[in-house]
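TICKET #2291
ISSUE: user wants both folds in one file
ATTACHMENT 1:
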Amino acid sequence: FATANESNPCPPGYQGYCGGTWRGIIEKLDYIQGMGFDAIWISPITKQIDDPSRAYHGYSQQDLYSLNERFGTSQDLKDLASALHTRDMYLMVDIVTNHFGLSGSATAVNYSSMNPFDRQSDFHPLCFVSDYNEQSEVEKCWLGNQNYPLIDVNTELPSVRQIYGSWIQELISNYSIDGLRIDTVKHVEKDFWSDFQTAADIYTLGEIASGDVRYVCPYQEYLNGVLNYPMYYQLTEFFSNSSKGTVDLVAEMQDLRFNCKDPRLMAPFSENHDQPRFANLTEDMALVKNVLAFTMLADGIPIVYSGQEQHLAGGEDPFNREAIWMQGYHNNTTLYRYIKRLNRIRKLAIASSKKKRKDETTEVIHADGNTLALKKGRGMVMVFSNKGSKAAATYSVRIGDTGFAAN
């Protein structure tokens, strides 16, 4: 996201460290807060394997108790937390409990290179996930491949659970962390998360990469929140394709509303580091604005991926992980200003609602071929269309049950 030396080259698709640091983020907090955001989510902070091409993203850790020195020092991370809290902002840190990284082949593992799990018995036996319909395999087999394995931690072991519980408490205390984004949650057995949530005792947000509401939402019985992947797939399909109707999107909204413990604690998004940027799916700025508005004003704790405000259009990983300093931190772009307005609307609605908007769920009050109208409480009505900029300059839609008198 940011580096002390903004001249550091970082071409699109480069898989390695480009110089982004925690100190660099501190220097750009005005830019982030200027859009109205009150929290940031940063990459995993633990020490990684030596290979930069497999470690720069933070998901190949080798030592829980050491920091990734490429991102900065312990004091830098503490200063970042302090700088955020001075601004009444929050720090969310990405963590991994499912696996450790390995520099080498899956058949030649040096377990002593990892800390604190340095014995073969701390990990599941070698097998790679091949069938995602088999939950036992998803939880007990390894991610990656023979040459680039991610060694699966045996999280069923009481000793492993005890270490993880103590570690997360220490990490949160040392660096004043306010929230956790947890990677690869579905690859760990569910009952692990109950103990882990209790130990952490702060807001947790789990990644369960699936579009199936009935698969994703049960994890909210164990963690506070989950990334709203089911909504992501429907949102991006609807708003990137003007020939797509509202039926599937509405059905997904209803499914989430009635079958998830608390959609208000889920996290909607339209871009992240694992998916193509939305601008890669469509160049239509009207649709880009609509998907952002839906993300930020409907249910949940919205996430905007860095670079989205600059209308970056990278495709699949790693092309969607652009260095922001290569684009420039422009605070007058169309989307920077639009996101700022959306955050103002969101905060005004929360502040002015008698029932507090954050405690209300979104209702569908109208849906036709291309138009969707939503109501949240008595004070907010949202109307979305996927017709895009090629739609007629004006067209009318009759919407009832808005709570407002017709003009």
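ATTACHMENT 2:
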Amino acid sequence: MAKLASTSRKIVDAMVPSKAFDTDGQLLEALQEGSEILQNVTDMFAPLMKNFRIYFFWEQQKTDFGTTRKYVVKEHSAAPILDDTERAGLPYDHRGMCRFESRTAPGYRLVVAALMTYTLNAPSTITQRWVSATGMLKAKRDTEAAELLQ
């Protein structure tokens, strides 16, 4: 999908003055599956994942682009199977994934339940992390002080 957008951008860029229409080609190219930038972001985020509760959602319907229907982000990319993460498909296209028509719309309760669970668990998690960080900072300062006294 990003490749199609990138090609379309190049056509528009060639035909339309840049001040009339900005297609932001660097962003489109960075989001292409397999791009170096996207891989770098993924590589930098991977070690941090253990610090967060992560719930992956993906589109279950293809997005209509007028002449074609495609997934903007495929399931394997949007919701990789990883330890200690949750994942679920939502019965919408890419545009509609976060636009629930009502509180009874499919997927709404699932998303709200995930947000409520994470919100309710956050205070105790934050408290534990503050205690841990305070202990590590104290140990570091004690070590630095001991080194200065040597």
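RESOLUTION: both attachments delivered.
EXTRA DETAIL ON ATTACHMENT 2: The two ends are 62 Å apart (CA to CA).
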